[in-house]
């Protein structure tokens, strides 16, 4: 979700809660906002724990990972798909390799997937 939309919804819930129920409504809205933030942090920590326990730059199937990628994907979603952290090749360029030798190289811009290419073990390369 766009951060501006989330911020707007949080502010609107505070204002509506405060207008309808007074200070108790504002506290209730704040409780909802804090709960939502805790859910997001829990999701991030679960993904990082999973990725941290896997070997660096490894993926079960590079071809399947490459087929599931799309432009604009967030880094957190990419790490969740891969199941591990990528090996840094250059600034904002990471590589994941499977047991068969196939690899996926991704280029990020501002934390979002901009470009990726599948590198086959036989030397062929497919670009997005």
What can you see in these coordinates?
With 128 residues, the protein is an alpha+beta fold. It has helices spanning 3-21, 23-53, 62-68, 75-82; strands spanning 87-90, 93-97, 103-109, 112-119, 125-127. It folds into two domains: 3-52, no CATH class; 55-127, Nuclear Transport Factor 2, Chain: A (Roll), CATH 3.10.450.730. 51% of the residues lie in helices and 21% in strands. A five-stranded antiparallel sheet has the order 1-2-3-4-5. A hairpin with a 2-residue loop joins strand 1 (87-90) and strand 2 (93-97). Helix 2 packs across helix 4.
CATH topology of the largest domain: Nuclear Transport Factor 2, Chain: A
Outline, from the CA principal axes? elongated
Low-confidence stretches: none
* CATH structural architecture of the largest domain: Roll
Strand order of the largest sheet: 1-2-3-4-5
Entry keywords:
128 residues, alpha+beta, Nuclear Transport Factor 2, Chain: A, 2 domains, 21% strand, elongated
Outline of the structure:
By secondary structure, this protein is an alpha+beta fold. The chain is built from 4 helices and 5 strands, in the order ααααβββββ. It folds into 2 domains: 50 residues, no CATH class; 73 residues, BLIP domain (Nuclear Transport Factor 2, Chain: A, Roll), CATH 3.10.450.
């Amino acid at each position: 979700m766009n951060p501006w939309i989330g911020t707007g919804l949080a502010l609107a819930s505070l204002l509506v809660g405060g207008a309808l129920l007074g200070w108790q409504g504002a506290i209730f809205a704040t409780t909802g906002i804090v709960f939502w933030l805790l859910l997001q942090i829990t999701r991030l920590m679960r993904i990082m724990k999973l990725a941290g326990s896997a070997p660096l730059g490894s993926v079960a199937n590079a071809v399947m990972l490459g087929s599931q990628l799309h432009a604009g994907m967030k880094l957190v979603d990419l790490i969740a798909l891969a199941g591990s952290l990528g090996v840094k090749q250059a600034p904002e360029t990471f590589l994941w390799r499977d047991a068969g030798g196939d690899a996926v190289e991704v280029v990020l811009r501002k934390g979002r997937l901009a470009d990726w290419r599948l590198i086959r073990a036989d030397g062929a390369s497919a670009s997005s």
